[in-house]
Design brief:
251 residues; alpha/beta; Rossmann fold; 4-stranded parallel sheet; two-stranded antiparallel ribbon; 11 helices
Length: 251
Amino acid sequence: MADIVAAGYRRTPEVLETDVVVDGAMKSGNTWFRFLVAGAVFGLDVTLAPPTAVYYLVPDIENDTVYERYDSTMFFKSHSLPRPEYRRVVYLLRDGRDVMVSMYHHLRAVRGEDGVDFLRMVRDGEGLSPCKWHEHVQAWTANPFGAGMITIRYEDLLADGVRELQRLCEFVGLERDRSTLQAALSNAGFERMRGMEATPGANPDPMWPADKRFLRRGEAGSHRDEMPPEVLAAFMAQAEDTLGETGYLAP
């Protein structure tokens, strides 16, 4: 480790005031957004570059041991709750019901199909890190350390990704033309991302089973046909207010 750091790499987390942290509850589109940042901010064609180049440009605070600081402003991926050192934050928000469905399949891939109880996961938070969806959203909505922050919805990225990437660029003080943002979206489209999964180093989780898909459906509303009524009821008992406050319940 000392040799690596001496060679110019730094231990994570070391977040400066100028850095941008892309945060969100697990399964809210964080990995996808790393690829969008690589294309929109850095101009990387992710269909030509290896996935490891994306992870180099947007390190994972929780999982990467070291990183190289190549500019005064770094972009980091995180799933953590608010921290005082996170001064500029892009918060990724996704319908918590879809998050739970995606997380359920994620844990089944890691633990085995019989290793996860959907109801206990939702009701008791088994396997959810660092906390339940509504707790994560509420913590960042409160923004206790006063970070400069914008919220980008997963569903809005699907509906009008160029607009949302324009919001990102405005937030970080960058100018990018529409064609650059459209290329970033097209290059990181769902089918292309799924096609990249077979590439060595494509999966950011080294423990992920080689025979399982990391990207599953990539659409909004999956809870409608994948969330059993009793699981939905347990989720709504805890998170209904947060769903309403974030605009995910019809008036």
